Amino acid sequence: EAQVTQNPRYLITVTGKKLTVTCSQNMNHEYMSWYRQDPGLGLRQIYYSMNVEVTDKGDVPEGYKVSRKEKRNFPLILESPSPNQTSLYFCASSPTGFRNQPQHFGDGTRLSIL
Amino acid sequence: GDSVTQMEGPVTLSEEAFLTINCTYTATGYPSLFWYVQYPGEGLQLLLKATKADDKGSNKGFEATYRKETTSFHLEKGSVQVSDSAVYFCALSEGGYGGSQGNLIFGKGTKLSVKP
Question: Which of A59, A85, A92, B48 is most exposed, with the fewest beta carbons within 10 Å of its own?
């Protein structure tokens, strides 16, 4: 089954404790992306990757890092999490990122930073 | 910059009622337009899409027509069911033009509740 898998689904942690949210897709997609969803703001892009070893900032990249060492994986790293990063996070992928290709989303990771 | 504006919710309807969720957009190029649906506790699923002016996307009884003259992509369904209760997001993508990065620009979402 074609899917985007995120882990963990839920995480409660404390300020400053480094964490990684993993994302993996099995569709051989070149393009992958991270979004955060906040009430009243919709979804906003954090980082994206056009292919292996190619990453770039989205609209709200501050406080986050990503890497793309393999095509299927695109982890999101919070080196020093802060409470304003409490949010619902989604990983997504599409074949190339071209405009007519819909993105496939994971089920989300709910992060609470205390 | 690009933006999407959709009607604010929540929207509450009775089963079999007609649904319209308004969506308008601002874009510099020739975007593709999407409707995504988010059921409780789940990720976003593509509901339908349209990639050029006058295209009509349709799926599961939902329809939306890409209107370039009014920069709109309103979602409609003739007879809603309880199972349609979800949050609906309108989105656009200009990926592939002018070096843009395939970013989906989302509206804020409209929560639909359908009562039996």
Answer: A59
Residue A108 sits at the chain B interface (C-beta within 8 Å): yes
CB-CB neighbours of A73 under 10 Å: 16
Instruction: Select the more confidently predicted residue: A2 or A47.
Output: A47
Q: Return d(Cα A83, Cα A63) in angstroms, integer.
A: 11
Phi/psi for B114 (5° steps) reads -115, 125
Rounded distance between C-alpha atoms, residue B111 and residue B109, angstroms? 7
Tens of pLDDT, residues B60-104: 999 999 999 999 999 999 999 999 999 999 999 876 554 456 788
Instruction: Give the pLDDT mean for A88-111.
Output: 90
CA distance A107 to A109: 7
Residue B18 CA to chain centroid, in angstroms?
A: 16
Side-chain-facing half-sphere of A81: CA atoms under 13 Å: 21
Q: Which two tokens stand for residue A88?
A: 């619902």
Burial class (CB in 10 A: 0-12, 13-18, 19+), A13: middle
Our CA-based measurement puts residue B92 at a distance from the nearest CA of chain A, in whole angstroms, of 8
Name the residue type at position A80. S
- Tell me the pLDDT tens digit for each residue of A48-96: 998 999 999 999 999 999 999 999 999 999 999 999 999 999 999 999 8
Say whether B104 and A103 touch across the interface (CB within 8 A): yes
Hey, are the CB atoms on A33 and B103 less than 8 Å from each other? yes
Rounded to an integer, what distance in angstroms lies between the CA atom of residue A4 and that of residue A25? 4
